[in-house]
């Protein structure tokens, strides 16, 4: 996920006001440009959240006084390992403490961030020591609580109360003793919402192409404390223009550091092979750019001297202008969650014959007796473990397509639970159970057709919209095949783009997924048979084989959801109150 963008509407922000790039349908782009940024550390959207802690009913471990509690905060890895994040101060003589020390954590939508809170009673003899120096094994353990960061931020008041437990919960209630409660409050940093909208242009750019003008775009990078230069923003590519005027881009001040933090603005000539030519650069802070705008002045681009040479940087005739500089506060993804918005998960699974006989080990649908999930199961689990926290009732529509149910014709959208009346299942495990049951109750057939499941998902989203429910829907399509109803699916997606809906497509197996890249619409917005262009890009696609072992197949796709969500909200002028 990126931190700023440019699109027809002048950019859109996502979690914490950071924004993801939305490809412009009129400009050449995009995989090569994205590869450049990712290779240089271009990372996902996030928002800084401040955690406040309080407790009630703690155990009294002191004989002549009350306990002196302190909280230690940990992050918990997938392997169960704990990494200490921070400690509060010690509150003397209190069984109902309210700690003053806050802990700031970066919230990432696309990952499950497990937190563990341990409360201990600090012995009086250590009260004069820095809490960071305290040896925890020398303190009395009062209780432990755990949750995910998603569970906290999805509460309407940003507050979650947890039972503090002493002993092992896994050993049963007799061994798990309640020892008071811990309340965790999350508040998004104001800086996460403060952005600067910039309109930039250049003049007299030098040509990097032999037979045409350059195709310029800008990359804005920040400088980290370690000296690294990390991209945070990019413009669209403008074809054949030596005096380009780019569409507005939005920079999040928190991501930059401050208005005085140094930035490097590089101008590149776009090449489709990913080897973009540097035209020149400037080094300015946001405050410097504001001055350029207010005074109507410009900054000359320069190129750095070659390594090993003592010569100074070469100043170019090319100039950078700031036509607009506008500081504002925007509603963030977390603002909508606090307002009561939910994300509802939906799944559609490919049951075409090209997957192979589910009873044979070489089938993509093979259920391993060892419990090792196949690629379909992995994709469901990867998406479900993140999205489940944003859906209150955890009832998920689940469909299959490309199979022949018992005594019936081939269906391109059948309820995975076997019912003819309703499509929902209970929880992620309900999806897994219905999937495995369907494998042995339908006959795999074909062809691969997406249109009906996209239409079904859009119908549910539209019904919710008509009832004024605060819901946004995410359809996960998992497929192994080459789509055969490309134009019909494009028609359905153009219609669905008006709905509160995003579509994630995961390709499994070794098929040719070129059509999926068309649906992804990174290069050009989808167009229907009647010539209607989609109002926004709602599709993200990734081939399972492109994901390295150990990585979440859907993490990159899920990372784009907050920006798609906010693009819809701003398109429909929906604002939290």
Automatic annotation (TrEMBL):
A GO term from the CC aspect: plasma membrane
Domain C2 positions: 28-162, 178-302
Record GO terms (molecular function): calcium-dependent phospholipid binding; metal ion binding
Keyword tRNA-binding recorded: no
A GO BP entry: cellular response to calcium ion
Record CDD domains: C2A_Copine (cd04048), C2B_Copine (cd04047), vWA_copine_like (cd01459)
Subcellular location: Cell membrane
Membrane topology, from the record: Lipid-anchor
Keywords: Calcium, Cell membrane, Lipoprotein, Membrane, Metal-binding, Plant defense, Repeat
SMART domains: C2, VWA
Family: Belongs to the copine family.
PANTHER family registered for this protein in UniProt: COPINE, PROTEIN BONZAI 1-LIKE ISOFORM X1
The protein's name: C2 domain-containing protein
Species the sequence originates in: Solanum bulbocastanum
């Amino acid at each position: 996920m990126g931190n700023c963008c440019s699109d027809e509407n002048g950019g859109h922000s996502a979690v914490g006001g950071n924004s993801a790039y939305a490809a412009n349908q009129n400009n050449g782009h995009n995989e090569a440009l994205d590869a450049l940024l990712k290779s240089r550390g271009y990372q996902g959207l996030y928002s800084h959240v401040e955690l406040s802690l309080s407790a009630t009913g703690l155990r009294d471990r002191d004989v002549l006084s009350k306990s002196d509690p302190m909280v230690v905060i940990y992050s918990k890895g997938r392997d169960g390992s704990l990494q200490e994040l921070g400690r509060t101060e010690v509150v003397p003589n209190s069984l109902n403490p309210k700690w003053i020390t806050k802990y700031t954590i970066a919230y990432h939508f696309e990952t499950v961030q497990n937190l563990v809170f341990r409360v201990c009673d600090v012995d009086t003899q250590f009260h004069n020591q820095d809490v960071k120096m305290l040896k925890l094994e020398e303190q009395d353990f009062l209780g432990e609580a755990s949750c995910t960061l998603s569970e906290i931020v999805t509460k309407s008041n940003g507050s979650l109360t947890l039972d503090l437990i002493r002993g092992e919960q896994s050993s049963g209630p007799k061994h798990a003793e309640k020892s008071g409660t811990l309340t965790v409050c999350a508040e998004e940093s104001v800086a996460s919402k403060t952005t600067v909208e910039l309109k930039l242009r250049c003049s007299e750019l030098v040509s990097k192409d032999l037979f045409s003008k350059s195709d310029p775009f800008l990359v804005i990078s920040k400088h980290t404390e370690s000296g690294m230069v990390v991209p945070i923003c990019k413009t669209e590519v403008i074809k054949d223009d030596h005096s380009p005027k780019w569409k507005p881009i939005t920079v999040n001040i928190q991501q930059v550091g401050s208005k005085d933090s140094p930035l490097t603005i590089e101008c590149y000539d776009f090449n489709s092979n990913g080897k973009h030519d540097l035209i020149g650069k400037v080094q300015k802070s946001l405050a410097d750019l504001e001055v350029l705008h207010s005074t109507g002045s410009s900054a000359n681009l320069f190129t750095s001297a070659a390594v090993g040479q003592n010569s100074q940087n070469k100043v170019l005739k090319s100039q950078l202008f700031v036509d607009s500089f506008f500081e504002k506060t925007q509603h963030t993804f977390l603002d909508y969650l606090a307002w009561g918005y939910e994300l509802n998960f939906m799944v559609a699974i490919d049951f075409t014959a090209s997957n192979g006989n589910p009873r044979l080990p070489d089938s993509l649908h093979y259920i391993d007796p060892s419990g090792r999930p196949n690629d379909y199961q992995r994709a469901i689990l990867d998406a479900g473990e993140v999205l489940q926290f944003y859906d209150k009732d955890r009832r998920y529509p689940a469909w299959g397509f490309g199979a022949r149910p018992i005594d019936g014709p081939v269906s391109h959208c059948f309820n995975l639970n076997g019912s003819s009346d309703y499509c929902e299942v209970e929880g992620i495990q309900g999806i897994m159970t219905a999937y495995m049951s369907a494998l042995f109750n339908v006959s795999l057939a074909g062809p691969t057709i997406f249109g009906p499941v996209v239409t079904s998902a859009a119908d549910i989203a539209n019904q919710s919209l008509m009832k004024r429910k605060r819901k946004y829907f995410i359809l996960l399509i998992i497929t192994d095949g080459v789509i055969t109803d490309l134009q019909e699916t494009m028609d359905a997606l153009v219609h669905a783009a008006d709905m509160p809906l995003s579509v994630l497509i995961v390709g499994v197996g070794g098929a040719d997924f070129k059509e999926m890249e068309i649906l992804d619409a990174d290069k050009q917005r989808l167009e229907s048979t009647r010539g209607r262009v989609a109002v926004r890009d709602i599709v993200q696609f990734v081939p399972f084989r492109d994901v390295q072992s150990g990585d979440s197949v859907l993490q990159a796709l899920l990372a784009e959801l907050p920006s798609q969500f906010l693009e819809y909200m701003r398109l429909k002028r929906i604002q939290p109150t």
